[in-house]
Amino acid sequence: MIGGGLAGTLVAAALNSRFDEIIVLERDALPAGAELRKCVPQAKHAHLLLSGGARVIDALIPGFLARVYAEGAHDLNAPGDLVAMTTAGWMPRRTGAQFLVGASRPLIDWVARDIVAKDPRVQVRDESPVTELIGDAKRVRGVRGPDGVIEADLVVDAAGRGTRAPKWLAELGAGAVRTEVIDSGLAYATRIFQAPAAARRDFPVITMQADSRGPGPGRGGAVQPIEGGRWIVTVSGTRGGEPPTTVDGYTDFVRSGPRHPILGDLIEHAEPLTEIYTSRSTANQRHRYDELELPEGFVALGDSVAAFNPVYGHGMSVAAHGAHVLRSVLAAGGSTRRAQRVICGIGVGAWDMAAGQDVHFPGVRGASPTRRDLARRAFVDRMSRTAVSRTRVYDAMVGAFMLAKPMSSLMAPGVLLDVLRGPIAPALTEPPLTADERRRAGL
Ligand SMILES: Cc1cc2nc3c(=O)[nH]c(=O)nc-3n(C[C@H](O)[C@H](O)[C@H](O)COP(=O)(O)OP(=O)(O)OC[C@H]3O[C@@H](n4cnc5c(N)ncnc54)[C@H](O)[C@@H]3O)c2cc1C
């Protein structure tokens, strides 16, 4: 395994009954607890783990969810504990079938790794960068690590967004992988706060989606409850609308950047715990391995295949589905080439959702909106407006967004009929926090 991030850990769990020995080579020094580390810098930012991914992680790593919650993570019902502003306005809250895990990314990674590394078949070697694939255009037979060549029946690339596998595969003569990039120039700025004492438990996640229909850049933000009674507060803006990186600039942007000042109201009563963290690693990027005759014995998954604009919170869940599918295809006697094609297919829904919105923002690089993109946006707008007052449509949207249901569920006849009929009530104009939540947050 190349990479001991979340995808690498999930693959180790997925394949532990198939291989006697699984070696995870990780270039970073791995901490012994839920701590930030150098090579996963995005872990400083809000990481929503959606039910569609969380259930798969829990199936691959039994006990994962119970342990994360025992460490203080929040079990947030969706849409019951979701205060969400879409392009249609604020959405209603109601107990639903989905959920979000309110945890920091370091906690998610550490719990997963801690359980998986206890398996005697799994060896995690940190400070062990892989520098080359070994093999030829027909078959990958191993990798070069710091102590020399390690031969393997299967090499999995889980090296994340910065993977060098396309270059290494070309060096083996396996051909050039086509890479697609659609980049809205989105920048993130994040600060972690201690929530007011009365709001440290039972507080919803609040998200505000950027609106691509205006002439200017998109701006959004989120307050996510995480372990330790903390809030992770992330704001973002596309090219030309990036959040400032100074404390004062960030604080102003939290209030005035997104389309409603609620996040600014909330942080006024919370205690800042960190500096302002920033990230620009947000472009949609995918390597089209599905178009190549890949060598056998090699599979890539997680961000090393497809990485998405993170505001939709899909990366970890797509990685989980990928690990699960890899196990199923190999168990059914399928080839690694077949597994790779299926893994590439798994990311298509998340790609369409993220890239399909990003093409509309000013200054986007890598694509411009086609008629299909314009039609899709008009459909999503109508669906969002309808979802405010028609439960069946909102349930379908939440299920698909949480990657718990296929995107095709949005096209179910009953849902389409409701979308055609349109909304029966307008969206809420204020965030649907309860009086008790407002009081506990000091509002
Ligand atoms: C700002 C931001 C916010 C995000 N928010 C969310 C969110 O809310 N929800 C969500 O689901 N996703 C989110 N994501 C996406 C999420 O971070 C990724 O999808 C996820 O990290 C993918 O896991 P991975 O294991 O594939 O890659 P990574 O987590 O990047 O791990 C890759 C690992 O490979 C190691 N590695 C790299 N090269 C080598 C080598 N040559 N040898 C050995 N080891 C190597 C690295 O050190 C690293 O440990 C966000 C991303 C960003 C940038």
From TrEMBL:
The keyword Ribosomal protein does not apply. The lineage of its organism: Bacteria, Bacillati, Actinomycetota, Actinomycetes, Pseudonocardiales. The keyword DNA repair does not apply. Keywords: Monooxygenase, Oxidoreductase. InterPro entries: FAD/NAD-bd_sf. It comes from Allokutzneria multivorans. SUPFAM superfamilies: FAD/NAD(P)-binding domain. PANTHER family: THIAMINE THIAZOLE SYNTHASE. This is FAD-dependent monooxygenase. GO terms for molecular function: monooxygenase activity.
